[in-house]
Design a protein that fits this description.
- By secondary structure, the protein is an alpha/beta fold.
- The protein has nine helices and seven strands.
- Helix 5 links the parallel strand 4 (about 90-95) and strand 5.
Length: about 210
């Protein structure tokens, strides 16, 4: 039986990113695939999505969101868990850290990476709209590592090490072709409208979309 490792950063938040991760977990559980999940404590809306599945095939490692973010950037704990569990497939959401690539090679695991937004576009847009305000610590951190020639992730060309690259929209696929010269798969975040569709227009609350 396959063993799949998921690094799910967005389960703690409502919205499309967290729902994609919850549905990945649900799909794997329905197929009875052994799944190791590292995540923050899931938001109630995401927990509701997976409350009806068998937990027998899922092993959870729960961390606070800030702790998980620090582990992604430079911690050894995630790598130790991957080495101990030795999965055949590693699924990442939102980015591909070099450290995860290295440990994936060590355990001979395939990599699937799912992008809610691709990194080169994100950096360009932040720089454009913020007018390169280097007082912004995240931009300063990015510039410092760039100046030292340090790349902490493989997101400038994920095909260098990922076996499957997935994005969340046709627009991100268009940008992937622009930046990477390759075409990824597209998997749209789920949108459930059935529970709202039965209401008559006259009985709905006013809302802005």
């Amino acid at each position: 039986m396959y063993k799949v490792f998921l690094l799910a950063n967005s389960l703690a938040k409502p919205g499309g990113a967290g729902r994609v991760e919850a549905y990945f977990i649900k799909a794997l559980a329905m197929e009875k695939i052994r799944t190791i999940v590292i995540s923050p404590k899931p938001h109630k809306s995401n927990m509701d999505l997976i409350s009806d599945i068998s937990k027998e095939s899922i092993k959870w490692y729960l961390f606070t969101a800030p702790k998980l973010q620090s582990l992604n950037v430079g911690g050894r704990l995630v790598e130790n868990i991957i080495e101990r569990e030795s999965p055949e497939v590693i699924v990442l959401f939102g980015g591909l850290p070099k450290r995860i690539r290295d440990v994936a090679r060590k355990v001979n695991a395939k990599i699937i990476v799912y992008y809610h937004m691709i990194a080169p576009w994100y950096v360009e847009i932040r720089g454009f709209y913020r007018k390169y305000r280097w007082s912004d610590l995240s931009m300063l951190y990015f510039a410092f590592n760039l100046a030292l020639g340090r790349r902490l992730s493989c997101d400038l060309n994920p095909w260098d090490c990922a076996d499957i690259v997935v994005v969340n929209s046709d627009y991100m696929r268009f940008l992937a072709r622009r930046y990477w010269g390759r075409e990824p798969y597209v998997l749209h975040p789920p949108i459930e409208i059935e529970k709202f569709s039965y209401r008559l227009l006259t009985s709905r609350e006013p809302s802005v979309i």
